[in-house]
Amino acid sequence: MVIVGKVRRDAPWSWLKDGLADLAAEPGISLGYGAVFTLVGAAITLGLVAAGLGGLAPVFLAGFALVAPAFAIGVYRISQVRDEGGTPRLFDFWSMPVGRVTQLALLSVLLLVFFLAWARLAQFLFAMFAYGSDLTLSSVLPFLFSMPGLGLIIVGTLIGGALALAAFTVSAIAFPMLVDQDVDAFTAIAASIKAVKNQPGVMLTWAWLIALITALGMAAFLIGLAFAFPLIAHASWRAYKDFAPRPASSADALAADRASSDAV
């Protein structure tokens, strides 16, 4: 069982503000992680184009965003070390206890499953809507402006959005919790799900802001991701600290839930 606190309705904006303050306090390391994340995304895009599969680039970039929290561990550590009064260093994540690293790896595998599911579904949708078309960028772009292409965009967006929401629900505060506490991945996932369940309006607003910032970063020829990635990661740490999840006995968790319901 896990206890999750209650946050203000406008909390996502505070998380962004505090996340920006974290980034500004350690711009070199934060933007360094952002640059690495951006370079990986660019390498995926260029590799697909070189292989004649440029039409798949948007699909893989969207899937890449699903696993972004697993890449943000180093950024979470920056905020954590700052909160503890220390001076962040580039490879602070190597100093985490082995048990936490193991649980982080387990949660990362779960996000990888979401990524693979998205890739397979996208492949199926393209085969269904664009039968006979190749996957080169020059062929896919004109197709997307056709009626079948519009159908592909609508259905793909709906399915991708559902997967993204599921991935967000299980990982929104789970990764920061595993970085900060000696808990197992299932407890961290439960805390994240509980935060979304208890305050769906707040968390849907946060999910929308993450999607918007990520989209703007990708629209800037991926360069914007070097800034967007650490900003979202720092803000996600602030979201976790605001909810202040903690493991508890069944009795304590039930009492906390009852108190939260009475408050509402």
Provide the fold topology:
Blueprint (H helix, E strand, L loop, with lengths): L1 E2 L7 H15 L1 H24 L6 H10 L1 H4 L1 H11 L14 H32 L7 H8 L2 H25 L2 H7 L4 H14 L1 H20 L5 H19 L2 E2 L2 H14 L1
Antiparallel strand pairs: 1-2
Task: Provide structural commentary.
The protein is mainly alpha-helical and 264 residues long. It has one domain (2-263). 77% of the residues lie in helices and 2% in strands. It contains 13 helices and 2 strands. The chain has helices at 11-25, 27-50, 57-66, 68-71, 73-83, 98-129, 137-144, 147-171, 174-180, 185-198, 200-219, 225-243, 250-263, and strands at 2-3, 246-247. Strands 1-2 form a two-stranded antiparallel sheet. Helix 5 (73-83) crosses helix 9 (174-180).
Order of strands, widest sheet: 1-2
Total of domains? 1
SSE order: EHHHHHHHHHHHHEH
Helix content estimate: over 70%
Low-pLDDT stretches: none
Shape: globular
User: How many individual helices?
Assistant: 13
Protein name: DUF2189 domain-containing protein
InterPro entries: DUF2189 (IPR018692)
Pfam families: DUF2189
Keywords: Membrane, Transmembrane, Transmembrane helix
Quick gist of this model?
The protein is mainly α. The protein has 13 helices and 2 strands.
Give structural attributes:
77% helix, two-stranded antiparallel ribbon, mainly alpha, 13 helices, globular
